[in-house]
Write a structure and sequence with these properties.
single chain; 631 residues; mainly alpha; three-stranded mixed sheet; 27 helices; 66% helix; elongated
């Protein structure tokens, strides 16, 4: 009897266990395919957006505190309303990560082993916080699992941290509630500083490895990964690494990589819809302003390349960035203007701000401010002020003077380029031409070329503007070739042509007078050398001394012959130039009278050659005639 009873109980127990596993299998099947099953019906429906999940209460309630609270609230409301519905419905549309995140969390509640990866760890961490899947409800719950993965695999690696941070961009503000973004950014900053220190120590240890190793150990290798981040996260990461003491040259490289990637993408994407174009325009403006604010401290020794600053300023003008952003970039360029080339300061005008067709091609106002910043630099702004005090400011060897000479050549090239613009006004060109001090230009050939181009492109200029523009040229600092061209240039005012001829005559006279003085100086130096050598060397024989004297005499005769030939060439050039001017220039009477006065000056030169010591009356007469020729 008892044996039969035991056999029945054992059979019932086996059947119960078998049915239990069958029910669990059907539950898993219903979860995976998101639909209720026939023999084990679902008692809970989760709605997330357009997706619907038919599930069971027990496995979800055992791990999720939020679902447990929502079911209790739904049960109370149903009891108050006397509802007999056995299936509960919950709407969790606000869960971070949407239906994808909830599906993974539900599988975890049913005991399915889910794979946590870089692409979903942030989403699962936020979903675990939203569903309250903490240790309070179950051991080794989803929140602790994701936290362990973050600590072991994410926060210890810069690439993994950047990858997870990139996937967190769509999870804001949930990531801010659990402080996930700040933790990842701090980990990136700390690891970047450790990487910088390790790279420096490895270079010292290996005594600067070869090119291949140096390329693999590039200190900014991780900075290129930041280009995948959005602007807000990128700004926060760069601010963090700056506060941790990252080198400015590394920060500059990171900014250049990000700007080239983000601005280039913004320029390439063109949508025919106006709304999309405006959004892209605003996005570029915000990007330029943000990158400008992240640049290192302003300095004349800044590590920011001039080409990058110029590109930022051009983008700032084209996107109508804020005035403070443009002013900051203009000052940075002005501090390093001696390192610029012509392409850096050829800044196009804002096409959006100037709608009319007669607007200039280039933004000369911005360039005017940049050059003014460079010329008004205070010596205290320069780090090597003590080094500059060792030089005279006007000396060609002075560092500041050499920089000004470079800038003057740059400005003359810029004037020649913008002079080709038919919409350029004479007032702006005059303002730029008068910007430099007198000692900045050693030769005015570059400015003369720019003025000549402008007069050629603008033939209908007023005579007053033409005279004022030509007045910026110092005829005394023109080369011989420029003077020859200016004397025959019909586009120049008559006054300037007369002035050029007058200074050419003075130059010719100085060249003629310089022959005697040069010979006297040369003979005096030779005689002094011979006297000194004879006094100090009593062992030299009279024959050797006589040979050296004859050799020096031959050299002096050759030098005198060269000077005479040069003087003859100058006179021929002057006579031919004078004849061409008289023939070609419309003001023939003025030039005929002027040539008569020049002939009188030549007669005076001949008298001076015949009389080695002219009296005071002749000198006074010459001075009076020279003043009369100017008038």
């Amino acid at each position: 009897m008892w044996s039969r009873i035991c056999r029945c109980r054992w059979g019932c127990m086996c059947m119960t266990i078998l049915f239990f596993f069958i029910r669990v299998g059907f539950l898993l099947y219903g979860l995976l395919f998101c639909r209720p099953i026939s023999d084990v019906s679902s008692d809970l429906t989760i709605e997330i957006g357009t997706a619907s999940f038919a599930l069971h209460k027990f496995p979800l309630v055992s791990r999720s505190g939020r679902i447990r609270k929502l079911l209790l609230e739904a049960k109370d409301s149903n009891s108050n309303s006397n509802s007999n519905s056995k299936v509960s419905r919950l709407n969790l549309s606000s869960i971070p990560g949407g239906s994808q995140a909830f599906e993974l969390a539900a599988k975890f509640c049913y005991g399915v082993n889910i794979e946590i990866a870089m692409s979903n760890v942030g989403m699962l961490r936020c979903a675990a916080h939203f569903l309250e899947m903490t240790e309070e409800y179950s051991d080794k719950n989803l929140e602790s699992r994701t936290e362990a993965y973050l600590k072991d695999a994410v926060l210890t690696s810069i690439p993994n941290s950047i990858s997870v941070l990139h996937h967190c961009e769509t999870l804001v503000p949930f990531t801010e509630e659990i402080n996930l973004v700040s933790r990842i950014i701090n980990a990136i900053a700390n690891n970047a500083c450790k990487e910088q220190l390790t790279s420096g120590l490895s270079k010292l240890e290996h005594n600067f490895p070869s090119g291949g190793d140096a390329a693999e150990m590039s200190p900014d290798w991780w900075g290129k990964l930041l280009t995948k981040l959005n602007l807000d996260f990128f700004q926060r990461v760069l601010s963090a690494v700056k506060s941790k003491g990252l080198k400015q040259d590394l920060i500059t490289r990171i900014l250049i990589n990000y700007a080239q990637n983000s601005l280039q993408l913004g320029l390439v994407t063109r949508d025919p819809q106006l709304v999309t174009q405006l959004d892209s325009h605003k996005k570029q403006r915000v990007t330029v302003e943000t990158i400008s604010g992240l640049l290192p401290t302003q300095s004349r020794k800044s590590t920011v390349p001039m080409a990058f600053l110029s590109s930022l300023l051009k983008s700032a003008i084209s996107t109508s960035a804020s005035t403070s952003c443009r002013s900051d970039l203009e000052r940075r360029i002005g501090l390093q203007l001696d390192q610029a080339i012509l392409e850096d300061i050829l800044i196009p005008a804002n096409a959006h701000g100037n709608s009319h067709s007669h607007s200039p091609l280039y933004d000369t106002d911005s360039v005017l401010r940049i050059f003014s910043i460079f010329l008004n630099l205070d010596e205290d702004d320069d780090d090597h002020e003590n080094d500059e005090m060792m030089y005279d400011f006007d000396s060609p060897g002075s560092p500041k003077q050499s920089s000004i000479i470079k800038v003057s050549k740059l400005l003359d090239n810029y004037l020649a380029e913008v002079a080709l613009d038919s919409n350029m006004t004479p007032s702006k060109l005059i303002a730029l031409a008068e910007l430099l001090p007198d000692h900045a230009r050693m030769v005015y050939d570059g400015l003369y070329r720019a003025v000549d181009i402008f007069l050629k492109v603008h033939p209908n200029m007023k005579d007053s503007e033409r005279y004022r523009l030509c007045k910026t040229i110092d005829c005394q600092k023109l080369s011989q070739e420029a003077c020859s061209h200016a004397a025959q240039n019909e586009r120049l005012p008559v006054q300037m042509a007369v002035q050029v001829l007058y200074f050419e005559q003075i130059r010719l006279r100085n060249a003629m007078n310089g022959v005697g003085s040069h010979n006297q100086l040369l003979f005096g130096s030779m005689n002094g050398h011979r006297a000194g050598s004879g006094a100090g060397s009593g062992c030299i024989s009279p024959r050797d001394n006589y040979a050296s004297v004859r050799r020096e005499n031959r050299e002096l005769k050759l030098e005198v012959a060269r000077m005479r030939m040069r003087l003859t060439d100058l006179e021929k050039d002057h006579v031919s130039m004078k004849q061409e001017l008289v023939k070609s220039h419309p003001a023939n009477r003025l030039f005929k009278s002027f040539t008569k006065k020049l002939s009188r000056l030549n007669a005076l030169f001949r008298i001076r050659d015949t009389k080695p010591k002219p009296n005071s009356d002749s000198r006074f007469l010459f001075q009076k005639r020279r003043r009369h020729s100017v008038s």
